[in-house]
Write a structure and sequence with these properties.
This protein is an alpha/beta fold and 454 residues long. The protein has 3 domains: 92 residues, Serine Threonine Protein Phosphatase 5, Tetratricopeptide repeat; 148 residues, 3-Layer(aba) Sandwich (Rossmann fold); 160 residues, Rossmann fold. The longest helix is centred in the last third of the chain and has 16 residues. It is flat and about 75 Å long. The chain starts with a helix and ends with a helix.
């Protein structure tokens, strides 16, 4: 019998003093603190247990067992958001983890997200009680409201997860098509209409189909604000316009001023949300691997990437730029292949093409470089921070309100200093948990739909 089994038996027999004596023999500091936390928990000393779990996490912030134990105690102390935070950091999630994630969301009045997690727990556990729990709560929160989400083909990446999660409490149809018959059928069926992107589809639907008693919501991401589509949409039929960032209001006001004045009181800002469970957190250190995750087009200022790595190569030849992205303009492809070779950057620039698994791509990276001249709410930065990676962000309009100002630069000569300054993986992850989690996005959308949908 190993020492942990012996400690477990002593705890079961409530021989806590003998269990503590055994713990003194544990050499690993994290396991020792974790075991002390467990003993104090079963002694009913919740605050002391919490302190021991915290000490263990101070040593190893990604120890799955400690994270679960810490989350459990936080939940019992009714600190539901903090409990959720540490549960998302568990890398190997069991059904028990998803069940508790569901509990944290139910306690925070976010039933769509709670059911999303309970369903995962049910599928992983195959336990009748878990299935019963999911079905009872689904019946309790299910609304007799039909939600149709319309999106043009190829533009549904940002709405798929939202549609799936909302389907736990609404009847949802995600309509990704240009077929007029399918669009009309789904539109006639719906109580609430969601227009994903303020583009040509929004123009067609708002001008050609009757509003009747439907609640119509339109979500504008970024590029649409600079196009004529905004002027052509029939805003009299739109109940709410969702923007993904506060600074997009300024863009609308500047470039579509007449429309902004018309709809200003109908605008809701709902930032994009990241599924933190998809991005494994770990503590990182400064290094030489710099990631870029982006489509390669003019808005991303890709020529600046090569200028940055050229500058950093003079600081240390070990700096390497890893580019995950597809060329959307053959001119950039021609330039990149020429310049990389001609400037002697073959060893310092690696082109991967488009990468589906960003989480895996980021595994060995130390930094994320963003040189965009404009963004709505960029996922690439949030995904890197969720993994504990330090981002280096060019000062696009809105950058300093979306991200910690100390991570934003104006000129590339500032970058070496940014790289050498404090590196704090926990703060990057915490920032995303606090600000840009999918849970918050779903809660905001659910409240908006509830207000507009009865």
């Amino acid at each position: 019998m190993d020492i942990f089994e012996e400690i477990r038996k002593r705890i079961e027999q409530k021989e806590f003093s003998k269990a503590k004596e055994l713990i003194e023999k544990i050499e690993d500091e994290v396991e020792r603190y974790n075991s002390l936390g467990i003993i104090h928990y079963y002694e009913g000393k919740i605050n002391e247990a919490l302190e021991f779990f915290k000490k263990a996490l101070d040593t190893n912030p990604v120890h799955d067992d400690v994270l679960f134990n810490y989350s459990k105690v936080l939940f019992e102390k009714e600190e539901y958001f903090e409990s959720w935070r540490y549960l998302t950091r568990i890398n190997s999630k069991t059904w028990e983890v998803y069940d508790m994630l569901g509990d944290t969301q139910l306690k925070q009045n976010n039933p769509a997200m709670a059911l999303h997690y309970y369903k995962k727990a049910m599928e992983l556990s195959n336990i009748p009680e878990m299935k019963e729990k999911y079905q009872i709560l689904r019946d309790q929160f299910k609304k007799d409201i039909k939600l149709a989400i319309f999106c043009l083909p190829g533009l549904d990446n940002f709405i798929k997860d939202i549609a799936q999660i909302l389907s736990n409490i609404y009847d949802v149809k995600l309509v990704v098509t240009t077929d007029g018959r399918q669009i009309k059928e789904a539109y006639d069926w719906a109580d609430i209409v969601w227009l994903e992107w303020a583009n040509e589809m929004a123009v067609e639907i708002t001008n050609k189909l009757p509003k009747d008693e439907k609640k119509i919501i339109c979500r504008l991401h970024r590029y649409e604000a600079f196009t004529p589509f905004v002027q052509k949409i029939n805003w009299n039929n739109i109940d709410k316009l969702i923007l993904v960032a506060d600074h997009m209001k300024e863009v609308l006001e500047k470039y579509q001023s007449n429309i902004y004045k018309l709809i200003e009181d109908r605008i809701e800002v709902v930032p994009n949300g990241l599924d933190l469970n998809r991005f494994q957190f770990r503590v990182r250190r400064p290094g030489f691997n710099i990631a870029v995750v982006a489509h390669i087009n003019h808005r991303k200022e890709p020529a600046m990437w090569l200028q940055v790595i050229g500058m950093l190569k003079k600081v240390d030849e070990k700096y390497t730029l890893h580019i995950a992205g597809d060329f959307q303009d053959p001119t950039y492809a021609h330039y990149f292949y020429y310049f990389i070779k001609n400037a002697g950057l073959e060893k310092n620039v690696k082109l991967y093409g488009w990468v589906d698994d960003v989480n895996a791509f980021l595994e060995d990276k130390n930094y994320l470089l963003s040189t965009s001249i404009h963004e709505g709410h960029p996922y690439n930065i949030a995904e890197a921070m969720a993994r504990g990676i330090k981002p280096i962000i060019h000062n696009y309009a809105g950058a300093k309100t979306q991200w910690p100002e100390k991570l934003v630069y104006n000129f590339i000569f500032e970058i070496p200093n940014l790289l050498s300054e404090e590196y704090n993986s926990l703060s990057y992850r915490t920032y995303i948990e606090d600000s840009w989690a999918m849970e918050r996005q779903i809660l905001n959308i659910s409240q908006l739909l509830k207000n507009k949908g009865g």
